[in-house]
Automatic annotation (TrEMBL):
Residues 1-21 form the signal peptide. This is Phosphate/phosphite/phosphonate ABC transporter substrate-binding protein. Pfam families: Phosphonate-bd. Keywords: Signal. The keyword Signal applies.
Length: 281
């Protein structure tokens, strides 16, 4: 019996070792929230993911769906192992075991409600009963934060989802909606890329940019290798050039590199859920 137990233990250890090796060889899936349309998402993230894969020796594959809600569904069904997201800070989702390890070094982002600069709408109250576009039901800064403010202010609007920030703003400038919810960082980038001007009707408190996070099921060695590649990217001339080129494509500051971060940097997100309307928690 002691010999049998020893053999079983060795077999279990061998199985775990082979599983880890197979996981590393097969690689991991990385899902960033849809902040842009699919072509722009790919143009920004593919070079970064390729660099991180090469530098870390851990293969990452970019996995994004059509909308931000669909991409977050991958996360909630555990179909991915690394994310760039701010959709995981509700009390229920914090139990899923995701760990923050980084974020971009950019100014804090604000939830906003915007209209075109030449719109006749100058006050939030004028939006009552009007159609307002948001990215999607999972979008924290673009949807939950501004819509919570409208609900708390007694301003009932007709919600329209555009799939991502670009989709919401495209509907705004096509005249299909009267206003749009926005992320200040993405609004600024859209204005630069498309030559559009906005009037901001309302802005929220500041929130840190989206978090780089790793699933608890990723072995510590692989998680650390990927984190190191992201966080040291700007210190490598090749990595810094990629960051600058990709930032330019989406309208981010040229020094938008990745820095270490922890869960404590996302306290503002947790505060939101403490007082948010029930349907947005």
């Amino acid at each position: 019996m002691p010999m049998l137990r020893t053999l079983l233990a060795l077999a279990a250890l061998l199985s775990m070792s082979l599983t880890g090796a197979q996981t590393r060889e097969a690689g991991y899936r990385f899902s960033p929230v849809n902040q842009y349309d699919i072509p722009l998402m790919a143009a920004y993230w593919n070079p970064i993911v390729q660099y991180v894969s090469d530098k870390s020796g851990v293969k990452l594959t970019l996995r994004i769906a059509r909308t931000s809600a669909d991409t977050t569904a991958y996360v909630l069904t555990q179909e991915v192992e690394f994310v760039f997201s701010n959709h995981l800070f509700s009390p229920e989702r914090e139990q899923l075991g995701w760990k923050v390890f980084g974020r971009r070094q950019v100014p804090p982002i604000l939830g906003q409600i915007v209209v075109p600069e030449d719109s006749p709408i100058t006050r939030l109250e004028q939006l009552k009963g009007q159609e307002v576009a948001f990215a999607g039901p999972e979008a924290f800064v673009i949807y939950k934060v501004p819509y919570a403010h409208l609900l708390n202010s007694g301003i009932d609007v007709k919600v329209v989802f555009g799939g991502n920030q670009n989709g919401a703003l495209a509907q705004l400038f096509a005249g299909k909606v009267q206003a749009a919810g926005g992320n200040s960082q993405l609004i600024e980038g859209y204005a630069k890329r498309e030559g559009k001007k906005f009037r901001v009707l309302w802005s929220s408190e500041p929130f840190n940019d989206l978090a780089l996070m790793v699933s608890g099921k990723v072995p510590a060695k692989d998680a650390q290798a990927v984190a190191d590649a992201f966080l040291h990217m700007h210190q490598d001339p090749a990595g810094r050039e990629i960051l600058q080129q990709t930032a330019q494509k989406v309208g981010l500051p040229m020094d938008a590199y990745f820095v270490p971060s922890t869960a404590s940097d996302y306290a503002a997100y947790r505060r939101f859920y403490q007082s948010a309307p029930a349907q947005l928690r």
